[in-house]
Amino acid sequence: MSSANPETFSRDVVQSGRVESILDYASPSRPLYFRSGDREIVGIGEHSRWTASGPDRFATLARLWDAAVAVAPPAMRPYLHAIGSGSFDPNGEAFLIFPRVTIIRRGRETTTVTAGSSGTEPENVRRTIGPVPVVDWPHIDSVYRDRVRTALGRLDSGFGKVVVARAITGHVVTPGDERAPLAKLASGYPDCHIFAVDGLWGASPETLVRVHDRRVQTRVLAGSAARGSDPQSDARAASHLADSPKDRDEHEYAMQSVLTALAPHCRTIVGASTPFTLRLSNVWHLASDIEGVLRTRTSILDIIDSLHPTAAVAGVPTDRALATISDIEAIPRGRYAGPVGWVDGVGNGEWAIALRCAQWRETDIVAHAGAGIIVGSDPESEYDETELKFRPIREALTL
Known about the structure:
The chain has a single domain (about 10-395), classed as Anthranilate synthase. About 25% of the residues lie in helices and about 35% in strands. It has helices at about 55-70, 145-155, 180-190, 230-245, 245-260, 300-305, 320-330, 380-395; strands spanning about 10-15, 30-35, 40-45, 50-55, 80-85, 95-100, 100-105, 110-115, 135, 160-175, 195, 200-205, 205-210, 215-225, 265-270, 275-280, 285-295, 315, 340-345, 350-355, 355-360, 365-375. A hairpin with a 6-residue loop joins β5 (about 80-85) and β6. The radius of gyration is 21 Å and the shape is globular. The protein starts with 8 loop residues before the first strand and ends with a helix.
């Protein structure tokens, strides 16, 4: 673990007449990238990296990050950014990367921040995005339905929900530019968080938490249905989801878990009483937005340990859900369904739940997808739901 003590900070701001993505500034291999709404961040190189483990891992990272930015002039601190992620296991590892060069696009304004000396050669050079990596996904008969049945057998009056995930592994036939699938995801899923951090990449529809000037926001997604093939069937799919007792119950578990986790941090907090249907390219979700005002000027990193894992990715109660996940899932989740996002030098930031994602390995790639299991869940339907959730990753790696 290193500590940041840069000799200098520099900032350059450019106004553009048109909105242009800055993804082509990122590295073609293991890019460091986060995009949400009109904000896009590229990290180049590593000035510092911090790692922490255990139930207070993000609070530990908050202290390390605060100490690092304390050496910067106060006027510079809002422009300093670190990007990080953490394992799904709340006792596992989490880390932050403070890039040597950070490029931030907000609308038509692009800011380049350099921490310390980046050498004599400029690092923020545009590079044309090359061809997408070619990945073969061999078919393996899934035992997922049996795992869902096992989970159903463990549910009782005190154990209401568990999220069961499955993994698929693809072999990298031809290496390519790792920015290429990000560009495809950004085009196909513009309302999602597009991210790439240390080999974890994807397009998540779910905000874990967003903080700006003490205002906190999050979006809960739980309950889903496939999109229809035409406007009429699509409308029926959304209506059926909105009226589904099973999906409404699953959503309520997730909603209450987030409200309970946020309440100690907030002076006020409000969540909608009825979810709305959120339309994505391949799926409908039941969604609810929660907003609040923090009690103090708390860093976003200080909230993550309380929020993760939500009922949307683990279950209720958390301890029984985590024990069941550990027992019945065949391939460890790694950073799938863990936090991924950014923080600035004054504690603002945005973190997503790493869903619709995959993790690069040396010669292959592993992707996970899960479904919330409650009493009444159908193993075949839950399997079909995971197939829908794999679609963004498979499509992003298609020529």
